[in-house]
Design goal:
The protein is an alpha/beta fold. It has eleven helices and 20 strands. Helix 1 links the parallel strand 1 and strand 2. The longest helix has 21 residues. The two termini are 21 Å apart. This is FAD-dependent oxidoreductase 2 FAD-binding domain-containing protein.
Length: 461
Amino acid sequence: MTEPYDIVVIGGGNAALCAAITAAEAGARVLILETAPKPYRGGNSRHTRNFRCMHHGPLGPLVESYTEEEYLADLMKVTGGQTNEHLARLAIRTSEECLPWMEEHGVRFQPSLSGTLSLARTNAFFRGGGKSLVNAYYRTAEGLGVDVLYEAAVTHLELEGDRVTRVDYTHEGAAKSLSPKSVVVASGGFQADTDWLARAWGPAAKNFLIRGTPYNRGVVLADLLDQGIAQVGDPTQCHAVAIDGRAPKFDGGIVTRLDCVPFSIVVNKDAQRFYDEGEDVWPKRYAIWGRLVAAQPEQVGYVIIDAKSLNLFMPSVFPPIKADTLAELAGKMGLPADALEQTVAEFNAACGDQSAFHSTELDGVATTGLTPPKTNWARPITEPPFYGYSLRTGVTFTYLGLKVDENAQCSSADQPVSNLWAAGETMAGSILGQGYLAGFGMTIGTVFGRIAGKEAAAHAN
């Protein structure tokens, strides 16, 4: 490459695109290096559906209001307080201005999807999903003169003192280098490197499925951490959800998520329940189930529902296993039939008054005298046919990442790196210590992508 680029953005998803667009609008000459081939561009962003947005009144597709304090309380609940509150509030406050910015840059929204349990007020859904958002941003970036190289894998950033002096990458079979004025790293976590996952989690990680792109292998992250760039987060913490056990090893995407847990019982391979399926509304609790399933024998769980619950959740991409009796269902799912029948009978006996059942909000319809309890949506499983799904741990992205400040700037042990910024999943651990809140990854990527692009351009100029 002979063009004198001001800024190199590493990665091709939402955060990278927000950074590139913002920098280009500030007059910088920008190059995106995207590891994936063009049809697979966009990282995990192409699998998303929405982003979580603060607002003081109706905004775009969002109804009513969603305040900073309520948003923060929701985040603190799922993270158990393990979050940087200053950066969290920055992301939350800035999210309100992001929605009109997104619309100005080609993103279109639609009313919230049904079956996702109370998101119309908190989350703005993309018309056409994440792939449509990614394509809109690439069109906008192209119009601003941003160049993109696909299948361009960054292998090393040369760090000298307080600055990055060289970006090494491979493209079309050749090793190449650039020396831009500013660098933005937006290349995701390390989840697609299952050997790295296994080093963190142990052998159980080999049974995990990777929901998103197979190209997020943490190469740039490892390279920078090895050179002493400040890190944040625990390598065993990640956005992990329970997904259909029939999903592919990589890239199954959001459609492999199962939203039936609140209306079910979930058992392990011994047909024993192990957690409260009705603890909270699904957007605040779906992301704990990946870790729960990971802790079970062989890292697998099984959802059991009956006919009256089948239409209460988003349809699954693979049809459920169906049987006329619980014993037949157990046989089809490889579960001990006697144990499953006993577990269901004990659950049914613990269910009480059903008159307050309400599928889209906490209804307090709970079990009595059962361990673990089911604290909402506890209805007896009695109406044939019966249905089941297998569950596996599906990792979306990892939280070990680059530590950043409010300007999205990275640091070494003793000083800021003057021309290095990070955005998106590769720095999300700066805010997310554990747990996950639906749509918050896109909020982090959008907010910090824009900040990184602005700061990188200011430095380059």
